[in-house]
Design a protein that fits this description.
Layout lengths: L4 E7 L6 E7 L5 E4 L5 H11 L3 E5 L5 H4 L2 H7 L4 E3 L4 H5 L1 H8 L11 E2 L5 E4 L2 E7 L8 E5 L4 E5 L2 E2 L2 E2 L9 H12 L7 E4 L5 E2 H7 L13
Parallel strand pairs: 3-4, 4-5, 5-6, 10-13
Antiparallel strand pairs: 1-2, 2-3, 7-8, 8-9, 9-10, 11-12, 13-14
The structure holds zinc ion (ZN) (2 copies).
């Protein structure tokens, strides 16, 4: 684990979605990223630590990334942050759930809107917010330079990229986001994705079949 961040991963059984808890310092504040199907386990971990949860941060507003917001916020209340361009998707979460035939407790409204290149601070740690549209209009990634990690949601995965066939998706926009906002991170940055195992910028640039030059000329 690089830097002062502790990272815990919680993978949901139904969607295989990765949620994360980050703690700044050995004892310090927690933030939750994309609470999904394992929100109860996330709340257990926060409560057991005795440290506060100070924010719920959403990379984007698809059902699998927000289905645990209501349950987590009920146990350990914290303000919810979402890019405003994904607010329509967020408000349509009940319809997303109906589409998948999936039960959902509607999440409370977001408290704060992310903006591009915002510095989000918690405890003594800082995350750079980068707007990376394409998979959804208001998708963001969260980057910690000192820890050498980025939480990239459904923008890029080990060996794949996010789908763009859902409402608001745009393949050209996604490729531009990856080229300009992900592949420009330092090579050894660990990428924590919304699905699947962690990877690195260097590995995806070299081996991701969607990022080789013949596909949209998208290598950085
Ligand atoms: Zn998604
Ligand atoms: Zn997802």
């Amino acid at each position: 684990m690089a830097g002062p961040l502790t990272i815990r991963t919680f993978t949901s059984n139904v969607f295989g979605q990765n949620a994360y808890l980050l703690r700044c310092g050995a004892a310090g504040e927690w933030v939750a990223i994309d609470p999904g199907g394992e929100a109860a386990a996330m709340a257990d971990e926060v409560e057991a630590s005795g440290d506060p949860l100070t924010a719920i941060l959403l990379t984007h507003a698809h059902l699998d990334h927000l289905e645990g917001v209501a349950a987590l916020a009920e146990r350990v209340p914290a303000p919810i942050h979402l890019h405003p361009a994904d607010r329509p998707l967020y408000d349509a979460a009940p319809q997303q759930a109906a589409m998948f035939g999936h039960p959902l407790r509607p999440p409370p409204p977001p408290d704060h809107g992310f903006s591009d290149e915002q510095a989000f601070r918690f405890g003594g740690c800082e995350l750079e917010i980068r707007h990376v549209p394409g998979h959804s209009p208001g998708h963001v990634l969260l980057y910690s330079e000192p820890a050498g990690v980025a939480f990239v949601g459904d923008v890029v995965f080990a060996g794949s990229i996010g789908r763009t066939d859902l409402p608001g998706g745009d393949l050209q926009q996604l490729m531009r986001s990856i080229r300009e906002r992900v592949l420009t991170l330092p090579d050894d940055t660990t990428l924590y994705s919304g699905h699947g195992p962690p990877t690195t910028v260097a590995r995806e640039r070299a081996t991701n079949p969607f990022l080789v030059p013949h596909f949209g000329g998208s290598r950085a």
